[in-house]
């Protein structure tokens, strides 16, 4: 095998059965057996294809109206999105073939947003295909820092491009595009701000324990029995023995036709019975019954379900991040990242001996936030 210098300073080596040969690697050459061309021809650029808008002003006007119609479709989609966002019930459901039950507002919002995006996208593509210049331009490589003349040339090219797009000559496109892009920012803002859900002070403070929502849009509290989950049966005092734990939901929640999972996520409660002499908090004794206490099951760190109860120590443990709560002392945090106790549910016994909630949670359930009210 032998090496050969090329004019560019590169060396090519090819090994063959009877020796080695060198081939130059300067630009445009290929290594082959002599059957291929020594240099490829520049194929050039595709010729410009005449369009209807190039041949007549009437064709250009027709394309302008088509582009404007697509941008107008985007505007209509955005307006429908904004109206539906405020007008539709977020808890109404509709059956969609192939999908099943779906939140009605989500279906309308998704469809409206799709038309909003589709109108802008199709309008931009049709504009580029029918009115904007379609000749390809090759720009040779140049040093990273161009000369001042070249930089000014870029500015001139941009201005020429704007002129070539005819946006100044086509005010209908300019105004509908501006309207579509301007209005499209509204759904994005609503999704980023309002789409995160209600403000924590309202969304996490109101649970099914607050009572049904009346015609005035406000909850109307009434004492609710504590029901086993998932059996949906009422609990008597005699059912709760020392060391036992019940997963509890408010009366009526498990009978709901829709929205059960969302309601359970905020209303879930753990019911336990401790020896009364182990309880150190006067409030806990006053809010419980003969050592029976009820606490929110939702961890105050990031909202994981607290489900591990240590009978000997009377500690509740969150499995996600190991926050530990002392049930004998108002469920205060004794370990882990949680910053506040689990909210307690005040309970009593009705005339038939069943456990009931005499008031809703006084604190917001779940993760802490900056406007959490005090008990």
Automatic annotation (TrEMBL):
Gene that produces this protein: qcrA
Membrane-crossing residue ranges in chain numbering: 67-88, 108-128, 175-197
Source organism of this protein record: Nostocoides japonicum T1-X7
Subcellular location: Cell membrane
Matches recorded under Pfam families: QcrA_N, Rieske
Keyword Cell membrane in annotation: yes
Membrane topology: Multi-pass membrane protein
GO terms under cellular component: plasma membrane
Chief location of this protein within or outside the cell: membrane
Family matches, as PROSITE patterns: RIESKE (PS51296)
Residue ranges with Basic and acidic residues bias: 1-16, 32-41
Protein name: Cytochrome bc1 complex Rieske iron-sulfur subunit
């Amino acid at each position: 095998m032998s090496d050969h210098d090329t004019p560019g300073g590169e060396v090519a080596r090819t090994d063959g059965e009877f020796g080695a040969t060198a081939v130059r690697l300067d630009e445009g050459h290929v290594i082959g057996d002599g059957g291929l061309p020594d240099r490829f021809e520049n194929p050039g650029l595709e010729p410009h294809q005449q369009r209807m808008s190039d041949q007549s002003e009437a064709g250009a006007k027709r394309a302008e109206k088509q582009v404007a119609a697509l941008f107008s479709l985007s505007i209509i989609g955005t307006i429908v999105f904004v109206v539906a966002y405020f007008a539709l019930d977020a808890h109404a459901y509709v059956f969609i073939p192939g999908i099943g039950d779906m939140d009605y507002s989500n279906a309308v919002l998704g469809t409206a947003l799709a038309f909003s995006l589709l109108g802008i996208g199709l309008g931009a593509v049709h504009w580029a295909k029918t009115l904007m210049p379609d000749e390809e331009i090759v720009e040779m490589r140049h040093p990273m820092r161009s000369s001042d003349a070249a930089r000014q040339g870029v500015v001139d090219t941009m201005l020429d491009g704007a002129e070539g797009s005819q946006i100044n000559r086509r005010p209908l496109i300019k105004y509908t595009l501006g309207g579509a892009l301007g209005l499209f920012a509204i759904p994005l803002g609503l999704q980023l701000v309002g789409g995160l859900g209600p403000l924590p002070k309202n969304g996490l403070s109101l649970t099914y324990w607050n009572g049904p929502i009346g015609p005035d849009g406000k909850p109307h509290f009434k004492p609710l029995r504590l029901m086993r989950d998932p059996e949906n049966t009422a609990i008597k005092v005699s059912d709760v023995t020392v060391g036992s734990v019940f997963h509890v939901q408010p009366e009526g929640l498990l009978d709901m036709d829709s929205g059960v999972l969302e309601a359970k996520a905020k209303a879930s409660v753990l019911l336990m019975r401790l020896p009364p002499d182990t309880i150190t908090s006067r409030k806990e004794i006053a809010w419980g019954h003969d050592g029976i206490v009820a606490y929110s099951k939702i961890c105050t760190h990031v909202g994981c379900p607290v489900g591990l109860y240590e009978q000997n120590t009377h500690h509740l443990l969150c499995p996600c991040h190991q926050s530990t709560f002392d049930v004998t002392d108002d469920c205060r945090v004794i370990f882990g990242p949680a910053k506040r106790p689990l909210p307690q549910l005040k309970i009593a016994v009705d005339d038939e001996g069943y456990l009931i909630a005499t008031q809703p949670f006084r604190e917001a359930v779940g993760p802490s936030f900056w406007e959490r009210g005090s008990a």
